[in-house]
Automatic annotation (TrEMBL):
GO annotation terms (biological process): regulation of glutamate receptor signaling pathway; regulation of postsynaptic membrane neurotransmitter receptor levels
UniProt protein name: Ferric-chelate reductase 1
InterPro entries xrefs: FRRS1L
Taxonomic superkingdom: Eukaryota
Length: 202
């Protein structure tokens, strides 16, 4: 398969990554999805990340993850990539035939990489505005059972057709803002305590 890397990010392909600057061709602890428009709603995708089971890319027509959202799954089937089409609904993946072809993949240790061409879902008014999610989960090679997905990257709606689009991981953003909120609350609590102690001394 063609190596998956950051070479055309921002110019020839849209890229989503966690960490945001990671390069899947060199870094092992890196979750990466690239999308390159070939025509209309047809895109070429590259997916890379570490998992003992499967790696998945989900495309959502809104910012609410899991309403029968189209999901492309690349699983580690005893050292060989096995590809599945699926839909994500209420945190569960259900296998589904999807318009996908040209699937290629490779396994290196825990790193799963695959590339494929797909016709993406669309609303009439927004052909390429989709939220992108990268997730991992367990895979049973005997039964083809996919475990519940654990989200590694989740974006807001982005224009897949625009390579220059900046994709931000909302999970990382929410975590850091949550930490700041907690820190501010603790600081306020400490100031309040000091104020009360000051009054007590007086």
């Amino acid at each position: 398969m063609t190596p998956i890397n950051r070479a055309d990010c921002g110019t020839g392909q849209l890229c989503a990554a966690e960490p945001s600057d990671c390069d899947p061709s060199t870094s092992s602890s890196c979750f990466f999805l690239s999308a390159k428009q070939s025509s209309g709603r047809n895109f070429d995708f590259g997916l890379s990340g570490e998992s003992d089971g499967y790696l998945a890319a989900t495309l959502s027509l809104d910012n609410i993850l899991g309403g029968n959202d189209t999901t492309y799954v690349c699983a580690n089937n005893n050292g060989v990539v096995k590809f599945f089409g699926a839909v994500l609904n209420n945190g569960k993946l259900t296998l589904r035939e999807l318009p996908v072809d040209s699937v290629k993949g490779k396994i290196t240790g825990r790193k799963i990489q695959c590339s494929f061409s797909a016709t993406v879902p669309a609303q009439i008014t927004r052909v390429s505005q989709l939220a992108v999610t990268i997730s991992t989960g367990t895979f049973n090679s005997s039964t083809d059972a996919l475990g519940d997905p654990s989200t590694q990257l989740n974006s807001l709606l982005v224009n897949l057709a625009n390579p220059n689009t900046t994709v931000t991981n909302e999970l990382a953003t929410n975590t850091s803002s949550h930490a700041i909120t907690i820190q501010q609350s603790l600081t306020q609590a400490l100031l309040f305590t000091v104020g009360v102690l000051g009054l007590t001394v007086l």
